[in-house]
Amino acid sequence: MAYEFERKQRIAVLGGGPGGYEAALAGAQLGAEVTVVERVGVGGSAVITDVVPSKSLIATAEAAIAVRESSELGVQFYGRTGDGKPVRPEVAVNLAAVNKRLLGLARQQSEDLRSNLLENGVRIVTGEGRLDGRDAVIVSTEPGGAGTDFDRIEADTVVISVGASPRILPTAIPDGERILTWTQLYNLSAIPEHLIVVGSGVTGAEFASAYRALGSEVTLVSSRDQVLPGEDADAAAVIERVFKRNGMTVLAKSRAESVVRSGSGVLVTLSDGRTVEGSHCLIAIGAVPNTAGIGLEEAGVQLSESGHIRVNRVARTSVPNIYAAGDCTTFLPLASVASMQGRTAIFHAMGDAVTPTELRNVSANIFTQPEIATVGWTQKQIEDGIAQGDIYKLPLSSNPRAKMMGIKDGFVKLFARTGSGTVIGGVIVAPKASELIFPLALAVEHRLNVDQVARAFAVYPSLTGSITDAAKALHIVL
User: Fold this and answer.
1) Distance, CA of 366 to CA of 224 (rounded, Å)
2) Consecutive H or E run containing 211
3) Is 199 annotated as a binding-site member?
4) Which one of 285, 301, 408, 464 is CB 3.0 to 4.6 Å from 199, fit for a cystine?
5) Which CATH superfamily is domain 370-473 in?
6) For the structural domain made of 179-285, what CATH number should be given?
7) Is 129 annotated in some ligand binding site?
8) How far apart are CA 397 and CA 40, in angstroms?
């Protein structure tokens, strides 16, 4: 008697960044035949040119700050001159060595991810990929996708995770030497004498903060009246105050009209006619999705006006068997969200248990010094009546551990549902806020109320004590 075995589900993943990587792993875990198409390396730009190298650079900047400010804690560094007199050494940063290290870390992380996919039975194809209708992907194995050598991959489910690229102004074309995008900064061999950063969003603020700490003179050109215009207003005010105190020049309500090479430096012309001269310029004015020319429209996949792929909470597009994850979609452009979207897409496609992504539960972080971490509803949404909540803000200056560590700036802000006291959001501005936000993320995810948070034992002394103190201040009176 002959038995017919059901054919394995075939999954094609276009893009090996966080979303594509997690989708591939999930598919392999569930027994599918998975192929990943990636042009630059597993991990995508998040690992190779964005998150891993940028946060490694920021870690170096934090180390430089720690050394410079250690004297406030009584730690002093001195050398000796030839006649035995003490002299305080300067803090120097070898940018060439820093960049060599961080690019090495990025390559190693990419290789680790690649090895993990291969060990799980995932096929990896290197090349330029595009949809061929709704049920296949074609890959050009020649750079730029202009060759005639193609690989056609048929698929029951397709996941698009092609990421995004730096947005370019036609009047400020990067040359990789003096006018740079954030992917080109790691080619620098020395600290820029004067770095002009155009754009005061998350990317611009992070690099402005880092390079000021590394020793560059920094001018931040902001088109709005405050840096980080899309973030919590109190948090943005703290960061701008720290920027200015550290010697950064912040040009508010100033829009860059053009950036050109000028001698051995750059000239930035603002829309009001003013000019700013510097040694280098970083263009950080957002990103555009890498969705053009990959067959999405021909397959019937709906895009937003900005070119992002429209997806629902299980990462499904307008075409039932095509899913999308990451910065190329209309969801939050965060690596953690991309990863969750990738797994969710495959679980949904293969009929496994799935929890739709809830964006209000996503915690996010801005890696300035200090950091800004957020989760849940925002204060503006509460003030606008979109959510009903009570707000409590506790400065870190009152925290005993913060005093011991010499922390002067920052706060913990907690949002609780009016009446029930359920934690609906929060903001933390502090060193390593990215680590401190996790208790609030748990509270938001599991609908804990402020009394439940307050009853948890925080170590004394600790920065997390400010979280329980804020929760106590919002105690529900029965």
Assistant:
1) 18
2) helix 202-214
3) yes
4) 285
5) FAD/NAD-linked reductase, C-terminal dimerisation domain (3.30.390.30)
6) 3.50.50.60
7) yes
8) 46
pLDDT on residue 67: 86
Beta bridge partners of 219: 196, 249
Residue 2 banded pLDDT, cuts 50, 70, 90: very low
Q: Is residue 146 a known part of a binding site?
A: no
User: Cis peptide leading into 86, omega within 30 of 0?
Assistant: no
206 labelled as ligand-binding?
yes
User: DSSP E strands: which ranges in 135-189?
Assistant: 136-140, 150-154, 157-160, 164-166, 179-180
- Tell whether residue 204 is among the known ligand binding residues: yes
Residue 31, annotated ligand binder?
no
Q: Which of 70-84, 289-303, 306-320, 429-443 has the lowest mean pLDDT?
A: 70-84
Q: Answer whether 10-48+99-166+288-359 and 179-285 agree in fold.
A: yes
**Residue-wise pLDDT tens digits, 247-283:** 999 999 999 999 999 989 999 999 999 999 999 999 9
Give dist(CA 148, CA 127) in Å, integer: 12
- pLDDT tens for residues 98-156? 999 999 999 999 999 999 999 999 999 999 999 999 999 999 876 555 555 678 999 99
State yes or no: 201 annotated in a binding site: yes
Note the pTM of the prediction, 2 decimals. Answer: 0.93
Q: Is 71 annotated as a binding residue?
A: no
236 three-class SS: helix
Write the burial class of residue 377 (CB in 10 Å: 0-12 exposed, 13-18 middle, 19+ buried).
buried
Q: Is 327 annotated as a binding residue?
A: yes
Could you say which of 3.50.50.60, 3.40.50.300, 1.10.10.10, 3.40.50.2000 is the CATH number of the domain covering 10-48+99-166+288-359? 3.50.50.60
Q: Over the chain, what is the mean pLDDT? A: 94
Structure token digits, residue 146: 């202009």
Residue 54 half-sphere exposure toward CB, CA atoms < 13 A: 22
Phi, psi of 413 (to 5 degrees): -125, 130
Extents of the domains making up the chain: 10-48+99-166+288-359, 179-285, 370-473
- Calculate mean pLDDT across residues 300-313: 98
For 96, other C-beta atoms within 10 Å of its C-beta total: 12
